[in-house]
Amino acid sequence: MSIDKIVSLCKRRGFIFQSSEIYGGFRAVYDYGPLGITLKNNISQLWWRNMTQLHENIVGIDSGILMHPKIWEASGHVGAFNDPLVDCKECKSRFRSDELIDNDTDKINWLEVQCPKCGNTGKLTEPRQFNLMFKTNIGAVEDESNIAFLRPETAQGIYVNYLLVQNAMRLKIPFGIAQIGKAFRNEIVARNFIFRTREFEQMEMQYFVKPGNDDDALNAWKKERMIFYEELGINSSKLRFHQHGDSELAHYAKEAWDIEFEFPFGWSEIEGIHNRTDYDLAKHEEFSGKKMEIFDQEKNERFLPYIIETSAGLNRILLAVLSHSYWEDKENNRIVMKLHPKIAPITTVVCPLLKKDGLPEIGHKVVEILKPHFNTIYDQQGSIGKRYYRQDEAGTPFCITIDHQTSDDNSVTLRHRDTQKQDRIPIEQLIKTINDNMENFNE
Length: 443
Ligand code: ATP
Known about the structure:
Elements: H1 3-12, E1 16-18, E2 30-32, H2 34-53, E3 58-60, H3 70-74, H4 77-80, E4 82-87, E5 94-96, H5 97-100, E6 128-131, E7 135-137, E8 147-149, H6 155-159, H7 162-169, E9 175-184, E10 199-209, H8 214-231, E11 239-243, E12 255-263, E13 266-275, H9 279-288, E14 294-296, E15 301-303, E16 306-313, H10 314-325, E17 326-329, E18 334-337, E19 348-352, H11 359-370, E20 376-378, H12 384-394, E21 398-402, H13 404-409, E22 411-416, E23 422-426, H14 430-439
Helix pairs in contact: 2-10
């Protein structure tokens, strides 16, 4: 299945639009429409709940996008946050060298590699480093003294605040700090819709442990993070781990794993789980001159914790969910987004069969009953079949139809998106029935 089908459904149904479309678009930036933002919020809320509500020792923060520029020197991003790029001298295209070649890119004779765009051989340059951070200036004057960076990851905002958080919340090691927020990278090769964009959202949880307990913590988080994706309705056969080899390992990492999803364009990373050791805290100690050690009262000792990071891309997860859910039901000539009802942007739609005989009035009453419990809309436009198909594409799991029998006995039909099965049930049992169906939803 091609990603283009998802792109066009996303536009048609109001999930995702190309940024600045009336100006011809703005590359690698996307805007989220009414269904897209709700789906994105539903995913991030589930993550936030999983992290902070279900773990007594994990708390949340929200740090600034702009931070002291020294943070990025300390973290190594000013010096080492680079992508190696090769240019094609013929067609002027640019590529990330590690994306052109599977093997160790150092050993490659680039003159023997074919340009994937124009097909010429002998035209690619040797790789050159390119820094991915967006720079800006703070205040009125634009010079070197007031440079600031848009954060390329949310993690550093957690590290520089971790002692304040630990003190304020009286946390004992091991503990975690979670954050959801925007990150920015001047990606050269931005492609595959919202998979790689220049502005994106990360959901990161940094887990602080005693050195020596880091390997166990990493293994535990690897297990737990996989369960999260299954909760989102993603089948485990579409997920796998990929361990970073020596040439891939980031400068700060002792061990690193990606969770990969099988996208229509192949297996690709949606989340990284890294053992960052005490690298970042030691660097901040060095660059800020402030002690970053934690004090263990029981043992009366000070130490720099090790950090296990789980770093997930919200937009990539959203794309994984959309790709996973997209289903062409050829038998019934319809397209269905088989979203898990827990995250579907609209849970219930109420449809009067006709626009007369008092059916719309009953429909509005049913909307009022359901609204406090579920994201509910009212739809009376077009034939009932067309309305159902519209909601199938939007991923709405339940359609409620009001017909003449409703006026007689207060019963409605409840249509299930994936099977198209319809049950006749009394209005007063709707909330319970929908809740039961959501709880027991199986693909
Ligand atoms: P990649 O190798 O694909 O560029 P990365 O290894 O640089 O990713 P990390 O720095 O580990 O990614 O970031 C953690 C997560 O943030 C990734 O797993 C991904 O989900 C998300 N992410 C990173 N870069 C982007 C981007 N440009 N657009 C969307 N999401 C991104």
